[in-house]
Design brief:
about 300 residues; two-stranded antiparallel ribbon; 10 strands; 11 helices; 8-stranded antiparallel beta sheet; alpha+beta
Length: about 300
Amino acid sequence: MSYYNLEQTLEVFRKDLPETLLPFGLPQLADLCRRGKVTPVFSYAKYVSNGFIDENEQLVSFNRNKKYFNGYLTLPSLTDLLFQLKETVVTRDACVFEEIGTENKGAWVTLDNDMYRKHDYYNEHDYHDCLSIGEVHYIGINNLLFSIEQVQAYISSKRSNEQNKPLTSETIGDFGNPTIARGKPKTDKERIIELEKELAALKVQLEQQTYMPADESALQTILNENHKYHAPDLKHAIQLWIHLYIDGEVGDDSHSNKANLWIKSNTSYGDIHTNSSVKRLREVTTPLKDFGGQRKKEIEK
């Protein structure tokens, strides 16, 4: 069995969980630990004494049962570190999560640093029959490890649940929050018909993009400043007319006033009162209904 440290565990959950379970941080990880989905553990490679839980729910162990231990231990109170209820867990005993090379799991043990404590060994009549009181150990949040197998199993179960949800049972909002389902799930036949309609609509959109109408294609060519025969005044005139009479920006104002404002903001023609290009743009974009007497004669030619 292999393990992630705390930082790696959070990173994997944030990267691989479905969006509906995000954001994911210490409170969410602590909740999973409380629910038994993942187990916080700490590495331990010293001596332990095997024992039993008495009628007062206290661990009782003897020096004669002391042995070297190499593996990983756990405690229910380790979750308090994730909830940030305490900075350090202080303990003399723990529960075996994994003893490397054995099937030992779930047993409670007393923690010791050495095989013998000299004071006890030389002063007790029979050292091996004495109770083992253990040594105090301190575990902080940065000592916590998490089984890769448990983490990946939980992620897989949630991703599987997400994939197996009926498409019509719920939709996902902008921030990954489920919304209330409406209507009954569609049958396979109904879903196929719906997909065929969507495919047909996509084909129409593709054809419209591939075969652009001639007038629209010509307009794009006129507006293309990199075209060999690009005409700046023609482009400006079209853009000005669209601005005033398609977008409706002329409003209740006069054509000349609105045209002058647009030309000043969107061209580099300078003085709008003396520049001949400005006058030409105003005239060529003037609607027929606003022509003066001289312009009407030009139309009749």
